[in-house]
């Protein structure tokens, strides 16, 4: 698959059809089996990689597709609308921006073609820590200069896919917090090659959660990395990852829209097929109205996701729109999931209907990658000019 940046309707429809064809080979039973065994969807990720979809945002000069953010949202949305889950590989899209915008020519030449070809995976994003949570500027993981490079010590948590990634994008403090003028200074971004470091300073411990998310905590104990692992300028890492975080919000919002569509389609089919008291339950307004309201909210959220993606593509300011899109889409998917489960009644709790799996998966996005409350605080400050309600 090769294409230049474009967002015309024909291209977006072509993407949808191609994704549906791939997802048809990975029905609910595939995901249910993975869920039971807490296994990684290796075959699914391989299929997406070989088809070029995980290289969507990598420029053509590095072997990628050079597609737009809007096109990337369609890829992830359709995966989820088909009942699959892109969480095993979506980070490869939103971490690309940091490398492409701020990486050296040598780094881009070395890594991007291999990622595009599927020879390497960049899935791990090491930012969050146990003591800081979403207060990123309070992170404690350090990277200190040595004669041969940098030495890293610290801990990250909720670093999903670390066990299945060849590379990790890591944010660490390179200047002590009490030695910088601004809280946003003194943090740097590194690109770590994981293969030789795991067991040699890096320890990965899986965290078992209510969903099969392959998430972990990662410990760094005197991990030595070369000088050229640094991305961009020392001390400017926080600004580098901010735009990546906006991309993350937009792409995950698209996944939420896909979840909402899956829930609404699944619930509507069930409401038409399930007959009680002499007719389909879908004829009852008590079933119709919650589904119709969830449908309306999904469509409104979808428009916000599209707007945020287009602003991102045009390099316009998009922080407010990206966060709004994520919040509205997460709310829409959760409302649709709740309504779908209620429509199914007791059958919604049965594994074979797949509703309970998707219900658990979509609940995550009320708190990740950023909680709804923090988005509201951000919108109050940046959108409405109200006083900052957290931090200094």
What does this structure look like?
This protein has 392 residues and is an alpha+beta fold. It folds into three domains: 9-116, Butyryl-Coa Dehydrogenase, subunit A, domain 1 (Orthogonal Bundle), CATH 1.10.540; 122-235, Butyryl-CoA Dehydrogenase, subunit A, domain 2 (Beta Barrel); 239-382, Up-down Bundle (Butyryl-CoA Dehydrogenase, subunit A, domain 3). Helices cover 46% and strands 14% of the residues. The chain is built from twelve helices and ten strands. The protein has helices at 9-23, 28-37, 42-50, 69-81, 91-94, 96-102, 105-116, 237-273, 285-313, 319-344, 355-363, 372-382, and strands at residues 122-126, 142-145, 149-157, 167-173, 187-193, 202-206, 216-226, 230-231, 275-276, 279-280. The strands form three sheets. Strands 1-4-5-8 form a four-stranded mixed β-sheet. Strand 9 and strand 10 form a beta hairpin. Helix 8 (237-273) packs parallel to helix 10 (319-344). The longest helix has 37 residues, at 237-273. The protein is globular, with a radius of gyration of 21 Å.
Concise structural overview:
The longest helix has 37 residues, at 237-273.
> What helical percentage do the residues reach?
40-55%
**Number of distinct beta strands:** 10
Strand order of the largest sheet: 1-4-5-8
**Main β sheet profile:** 4 strands, mixed
Could you state the CATH homologous superfamily of the largest domain? Butyryl-CoA Dehydrogenase, subunit A, domain 3
Write down the domain tally.
3
- Going by helix content, strand content and strand pairing, the class is alpha+beta
Low-confidence stretches: 1-6
Q: Bin the strand percentage.
A: 5-15%
Mean pLDDT: 94
| Shape label | globular
Order of helices and strands: HHHHHHHEEEEEEEEHEEHHHH
Radius of gyration: 21 Å
Which CATH C-level class of the largest domain is it? Mainly Alpha
Q: Any guess at the CATH architecture of the largest domain? A: Up-down Bundle
CATH topology of the largest domain: Butyryl-CoA Dehydrogenase, subunit A, domain 3
